[in-house]
Here is the input.
Amino acid sequence: MSKYSGLPLVALALAVSTRAVASDAATNRYIVHFDDPVAAKVAATEMTHAMAQRGSPAWHLRHLAAGGELFELTAVEAEAMAASKGVVAIEEDRMVTPAGGIIDSLWRRQWYMHDPKVGIDAPVAWVDTRGEGAVVAVLDTGVTPHPEFDGQLLPGYDFVTDAQAARDGTGRDDDPTDEGDWTEPGDCGARQSTPSSWHGTHVTGIVVARAGNRPGIVGVAPEAKVVPVRVMARCGGRLSDVADAIVWASGGEVAGVPSRAPVDVINLSLRVPGACSMTMQRAISQARGRGTAVVAAAGNDSIKASTVSPANCPGVVSVAALARDGSMAWYSNHGDGVTVSAPGGSLGGMGVDDILSSVDGGERGRQRPVFKYYAGTSMAAPQVAGLVALMRSADPLIGVDDITTQLVDNARPLPGPCPKGCGAGLIDAGATVNAVVEDRVLPRPRS
Ligand SMILES: [Ca+2]
Ligand SMILES: [Ca+2]
Here is the structure.
């Protein structure tokens, strides 16, 4: 007869599942706290002896540095111990999971982040880093206020020289807010009017939407920062403004604009038909020379990526789009000009098969922050830019060429057909960041 068996059972912070109680022999780990820490070890040893004498599959494992004795116990022994003299609490030694849970309510709709077959496997990368210390410049239509951007943005700039297209009454200025790119019939050579796209807000959310605020989404690099740079407005933007913005974001001098430190990566979800212009190539080469990686959308023209710029500019990581089933998206540019692929959405009328991110709800001007599904290589590229931010966070010294190599070497085989060419395959954030971390520890051989 045990010396504890006759005592009344009083549960003191005892977390015993009903399943554990049902099986007398099953053991679990418990941390036992005694009112007298000095006497605790002695008491623990005595209890172990007592349990051993009555043949219980339970034992004392060790003393915890913060106080408390770790036991392997059956539920019956745990209940008895809870009632023992000098025991003030018994707690289950619970499993702790990395990075906590994701509470953002729209997370499950972000298939592009976590789908086992066609997602980029972002949560695996987050075990190592969520992008702390890395900076991404998004050269786009600007940004609108959104709860997903609270604390996520660094000061940006408006590089749109055309004040009329910009709709803010000024040329260049330090406010990158998107004023809307809606069009009237006849604008931009189109017969019909179009609503504002809030394109830059969508792209920015994919990179850096905050984690842990509900309701909402999570960006690929939620602890990184975005520098919003406005280069497009009504009817698009000028090559000259984009080139200046690339120089500025990468730490170069642009007349009349206060310079900034080079960002880690520039995202260009934009394209112009034709060969890579000297203007674009010079800007991109300078940026890379200052250590800034450049990621560009392959384009949505269903043609060869090598025929649109800046996807075809040397040194650029160009990104094709995959549909929900893992095959090449029907609209995506493709072929030799593609470096890697990322989910871009099916664009088949089913919104849920597209890419969910942040936008404004206004048809013309800004109204309120919302979330919408968009599809395109514009949505695929910022997933790669976000991954580059994770890579730079894991290894701030990784060079622009090694970034491309790691993205290519760690891409997964395409989950679906792409006979026209989708580059090295589907980016794999987990594998890529793991490889960068490994190479950071072990010096990489250089030729
Ligand atoms: Ca302006
Ligand atoms: Ca969020």
In short: The CA atoms of residues 281 and 314 lie 7 Å apart. The pocket of calcium ion (ligand 2) is lined by residues 104, 148, 209-211, 213, 216-218 (CB under 6 Å). The chain has a mean pLDDT of 90. The two ends are 74 Å apart (CA to CA).
